[in-house]
Design goal:
CATH architecture: Orthogonal Bundle
Number of strands: 0
Structural class: mainly alpha
Number of domains: 1
Distance between the termini: 40 Å
Strand content: under 5%
Radius of gyration: 17 Å
Shape: globular
Order of helices and strands: HHHHHHH
Helix content: over 70%
């Protein structure tokens, strides 16, 4: 097995084993970040509801591979991202809060992997790039969901009605 493939598999196994720990570390970092203003509008359950499943999807993709943007895992990640963003749009987050949340998630994953694995190997960089790629895919979907929900919430408060269903799923 190629070193990168072995490293991806090992990273996926570690993430699966520590999904709840990563989610808790992430939640605590988001709550502690004074620049994220929207998180106080979401109870812990709604703040974190997509994170464990998203981490599990990423872990399985690392272990099993990915067939590109049309793969089931990619579609699943984007669906989770869409829901994640819609919830934040409804909670009247700022888009920058969404980016900050994902930055905290990246850091939580990276710190755990550095703690649990031998990151002196040269393939660690490739694993980190793969994780970044998967998270970037989720961020894009999250922003789409965020803006859809924010526009709908704004239309409701201003009295406008969304009759066209633009951009819906």
């Amino acid at each position: 097995m190629a070193l990168v493939s072995l490293a991806r598999r090992q990273a996926g196994e570690v993430i699966v084993k520590h999904v709840n720990e990563i989610a808790q570390i992430w939640r605590d970092a988001v709550r502690a970040d004074q620049e994220i203003l929207g998180d106080d509008r979401l109870p812990d359950l709604l703040l974190t509801n997509q994170v464990p499943a998203l981490l599990t999807d990423i872990a399985h993709t690392l272990m099993e591979g990915d067939e590109g943007p049309a793969s089931e895992m990619s579609i699943s990640r984007r669906r989770r991202g869409l829901r994640f963003g819609k919830l934040r749009g409804l909670a009247r987050y700022d888009a920058s809060d969404l980016y900050r949340e994902f930055r905290h998630l990246r850091h939580a994953v990276w710190r755990l992997l550095r703690r649990e694995l031998d990151w002196s190997r040269g393939d660690a960089f490739e694993v980190m790039l793969a994780i970044d790629q998967y998270l970037d895919e989720v961020i894009g979907a999250s922003l789409r969901g965020f803006f859809e929900a924010a526009e709908r919430a704004g239309a409701r408060t201003s009295g406008d009605v969304d009759v066209g269903g633009e951009g819906g799923d």
